[in-house]
């Protein structure tokens, strides 16, 4: 793992500005020993701040997104980034959502500072599973279910045919869907085009990550071995 200057590293990790590292050096240890100077070189796995290991680089977060929170840095109302420590928001590269969930949609949301991995995961070519539990206004029509499975339909203001989508009935008005796309309000628009409406939407899983064990609004940092290969 490459080594970097402490002032550059701690600034990029959001702990303080680069110019402030010298004044904060008493809070820093390298391999368990007090840091000697701000230009001392180390890798992030060796560094502690206030005797706590610094956050991983890159940073990966799995959040159980609650209802009423917007996946944006700037918007009206409560924002998803307000749920994290301030140092996460000072990261360079910046922390970003891996795809967005609507304000009223709950469930698994990944965030990362790894830009290339983010673009790979959000590309339709990657065929990443996105599993949704959907509550509909009306019981699903069998013909509509088959239409969704076959794909090829068009959404309003969208001239690109939909990919085939797995969909199974799991309740009188509930279905579970597996998408490999991430178009704007896609699930809601798909059902609206079929004359039905989505009353509640929950993302059960994104890729191999689900929110089992996390209450709404809770999050955890992903371990390096969990995100290897992404």
Form type: elongated
How many DSSP H or I helices?
6
Q: What count of structural domains?
A: 2
Going by helix content, strand content and strand pairing, the class is alpha+beta
Strand content: 25-35%
- What name goes with the CATH superfamily of the largest domain? Pseudouridine synthase I, catalytic domain, N-terminal subdomain
**How many β strands by DSSP?**
15
Radius of gyration: 21 Å
Largest sheet: 9 strands, mixed
Q: What is the chain-wise order of helices and strands?
A: EHEEEEEEHEEHEHEEHEEEH
The CATH architecture of the largest domain would be 2-Layer Sandwich
What is the CATH C level class of the largest domain, in words? Answer: Alpha Beta
Write the CATH fold name of the largest domain: Alpha-Beta Plaits
- Unreliable runs, pLDDT <50, ≥5 residues? none
Could you give the distance between the termini? 18 Å
Mean pLDDT over the residues: 95
User: Roughly what percent helix?
Assistant: 10-25%
């Amino acid at each position: 793992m490459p080594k970097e200057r402490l002032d550059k590293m701690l600034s990029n990790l959001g702990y303080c500005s680069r110019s402030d590292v010298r004044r904060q050096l008493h809070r820093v240890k390298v391999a368990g020993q007090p840091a000697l100077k701000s230009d001392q070189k180390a890798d992030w796995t060796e560094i502690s701040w206030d005797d706590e290991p610094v956050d991983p680089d890159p940073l990966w977060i799995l959040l159980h997104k609650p209802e009423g929170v917007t996946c944006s840095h700037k918007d009206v109302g409560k924002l998803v980034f307000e749920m994290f420590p301030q140092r996460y928001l000072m990261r360079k590269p910046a922390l970003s959502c891996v795809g967005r969930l609507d304000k009223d949609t709950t469930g698994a949301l990944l965030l990362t500072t790894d830009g290339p991995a983010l673009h790979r995961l959000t590309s339709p070519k990657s065929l990443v599973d996105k599993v949704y539990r959907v509550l509909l206004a009306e019981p699903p029509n069998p013909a509509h279910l088959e239409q969704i499975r076959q794909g090829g339909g068009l959404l309003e203001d969208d001239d690109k045919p939909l990919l085939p989508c797995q969909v199974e009935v799991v309740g009188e008005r509930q279905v579970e869907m597996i998408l490999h796309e991430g178009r704007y309000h896609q699930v809601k628009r798909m059902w609206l085009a079929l004359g039905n409406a989505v009353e509640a939407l929950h993302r059960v899983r994104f890729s191999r990550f689900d929110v089992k064990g996390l209450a709404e609004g809770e999050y955890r940092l992903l371990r390096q071995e969990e995100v290897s290969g992404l």
